[in-house]
Amino acid sequence: MTVDTVKKKNVVKALVRAPDPLTSNAISNHLGAAPDITVVPGGPVDVAVVVAERMTVEVTSLLRGIKSALRAPVVLIPSEIDRADLFTAVECNVVAVLPRAAATSDRIERAVLTAASGGGVLPSELLGELLRQVERMQREVLSPHGLHTSGLTPREISVLRLMSEGLDTAEIAVEMCLSERAVKRIIFGMTQRLNLRNRPHAVAYALRSGVI
């Protein structure tokens, strides 16, 4: 395999959506000039860059469409964003928010590369607000119904914690004072609901979610 082939495989494919051609061309031209980013008109992409005045119904619809069709992380560049709209943006796969007034070419490029590598970029005040919203959702919506932001119930989390410690079904049943059939039912229910392939995948999901 040649060096050029390796470099080509590492290039991030970015999609740009902006409300006007001038902005779209300016961002596309800068990103396209970066050695590790290429701008594409559609199809499978690694990152989507969306420029918007604010989180209108149309912008939210666009973000949801990108999430559904492309499943790509989004770098959002709004002129303004209401804190009440932040949680909606995150639900639409927005992992980076750059206020337009501070969105220099270099910052946009760094945000695209960060998003492509699985990271995120949020101004500190927006990150604090997001954490407060998540805490309120957990306290007021999920906890009263025995749920967690990970989508796991407290009982499922307990089973996963014991699984991560190497206990088998019979040992988990003893620890939790349940029958083996009940433990198997809990494991089957969460793997089916969350589309997890097997027990190791379920444990990995719980670790990534930070619940064990």
From TrEMBL:
Stored CDD domains: LuxR_C_like
Coiled-coil features, chain-numbered ranges: none
Source organism, top-level taxon: Bacteria
Protein name per the record: Response regulator transcription factor
Keyword hit for rRNA-binding: no
Keywords on record: DNA-binding, Transcription, Transcription regulation
Organism annotation: Streptomyces tremellae
Pfam families: GerE
Record domain HTH luxR-type: where: 145-210
